[in-house]
Design goal:
Elements: H1 23-52, E1 63-67, E2 77-78, H2 82-85, E3 87-91, E4 95-100, E5 111-113, E6 118-120, E7 127-129, E8 134-136, E9 145-150, E10 156-164, E11 178-179
Antiparallel strand pairs: 1-10, 2-3, 3-4, 4-9, 4-11, 5-6, 6-7, 7-8, 9-10
Length: 180
C-alpha cells in the first residue's frame, strides 16, 4: 500500500464554479458593454464639439463715436454712454474727455450726482470730483480716462483700448482729452 501522505492529487480541468454563462447572459453583458462604449464615445464627441464652439461674450465695440463736440454742454457730465459703453463724457471750458465708470477701489460703478457735483460709488462710498480725482472713501486713485479724438467726419471718437492714469502723469497726454 502506498503512503497517502505522498500522493499528489490529480489536476482537474473542470471549472471550479458551477455557474455557466448562458447565451442570454452573454448577450445582455455584451449589450451593456456596447451601451457604455457608445455613451463614452458620445460624451467625448460632445466635449469635442463644445470645445470647438465655446460660449462667446459679445461686448460693445471698444472704439465708438459719441457725437459732435457742439452736442455737449460746457460744465455738464453726459451719462448717455454709462450703461452701454461704461464711459462718461465731460466737457469743461478747455476740453472734452472720457472718464471710465469703473471705481478704482473694487470695480463698482459710481453714480453721477448732479446736485453734489461728484461721482459717488454705492459699494464703499468712494467719491470723485467731476474731473475724476478721488477725494473721499477707500478708492486708492482717480478714475481712468480713455483716448478721445475727432474722427474724419467731425464726430468724437472714444477708444477704450487706450487708458490714461492720473498718478502716472498720463492725463497730460494729448490723446487723454480733446482740446476745443
Amino acid at each position: 500500500m502506498a503512503d497517502k501522505k505522498n500522493v499528489i492529487p490529480k489536476a482537474s480541468i473542470e471549472p471550479q464554479s458551477d455557474k455557466k454563462i448562458t447565451r442570454r447572459g452573454f448577450i445582455s453583458w455584451l449589450s451593456i458593454g456596447w451601451l457604455a462604449f457608445a455613451g463614452a464615445t458620445g460624451g467625448f464627441f460632445t466635449a469635442m464639439i463644445r470645445f470647438l464652439f465655446p460660449n462667446v461674450l459679445f461686448e460693445p465695440p471698444q472704439s465708438f463715436k459719441v457725437g459732435y463736440p457742439d452736442e455737449f454742454t460746457k460744465g455738464m457730465v453726459d451719462t448717455r454712454f454709462k450703461k452701454k459703453h461704461a464711459v462718461w463724457i465731460i466737457r469743461d471750458d478747455k476740453s472734452i474727455y472720457a472718464l471710465s465708470t469703473v471705481c478704482t477701489h473694487l470695480g463698482c460703478t459710481p453714480n453721477w450726482l448732479e446736485a453734489e457735483q461728484k461721482y459717488k460709488c454705492p459699494c464703499h462710498g468712494s467719491g470723485f470730483r467731476k474731473s475724476g480725482i478721488n477725494f473721499e472713501g477707500p478708492a486708492p486713485r482717480p478714475l481712468e480716462r480713455f483716448s478721445i479724438s475727432l474722427a474724419a467726419d467731425g464726430q468724437i471718437l472714444v477708444d477704450k483700448t487706450k487708458s490714461f492714469k492720473w498718478e502716472k502723469g498720463e492725463w497730460e497726454n494729448k490723446e487723454s482729452s480733446l482740446r476745443i
